[in-house]
Amino acid sequence: MRKRQYETHLRLNEKEQKKLDELANKAGVTKSAVLRKLIMGAEIKERPNVDFIDLIQSIDHLAINVNQIAHHANMQGGITAEEAAEAKRLVTEIRRRLYSRRDIFG
């Protein structure tokens, strides 16, 4: 059984149809989903592109390494100079990747 029991017919002009198509394509959802979200007052957000997803995954891996160093520091009561240097290098790499790909944020 369908979750939605009511069906509504809608007439649009060419400009409205193009805008609806554009919103649906950018968000990666159906036109019906766009209309339901708009009716409920939700913001239609653009689906992240592949470059953005790759960047986030890359940064996530680096951040996990930094977290492991921090965990080690907490367990051992400190870290070695080499571990501190590695943590600094990882944070610098995260910053470098973020700043080098500002183009994919908007």
Can you lay out the helices and strands and say which pair or pack?
Elements: H1 14-27, H2 31-39, H3 50-76, H4 81-100
Helix pairs in contact: 1-2, 3-4
Task: Provide keyphrases for this structure.
single chain, 2 domains, 106 residues, 4 helices, elongated, mainly alpha
Please explain how this structure is put together:
With 106 residues, this protein is mainly alpha-helical. The protein is 66% helix and 0% strand. It has 2 domains: 8-47, no CATH class; 50-105. Helix 3 (50-76) packs antiparallel against helix 4 (81-100).
Helix content: 55-70%
Round the mean pLDDT to the nearest integer and report it: 86
Radius of gyration: 23 Å
- Count up the domains: 2
The secondary-structure class comes to mainly alpha
Biggest beta sheet attributes? none
N→C terminal distance:
40 Å
DSSP strand tally: 0
Q: Supply the number of helical segments.
A: 4
Low-confidence stretches: none
Shape annotation: elongated
- Output the helix-strand order: HHHH
What is the compact description of this entry?
This protein has 106 residues and is mostly helical. It has helices spanning 14-27, 31-39, 50-76, 81-100. The two termini are 40 Å apart.
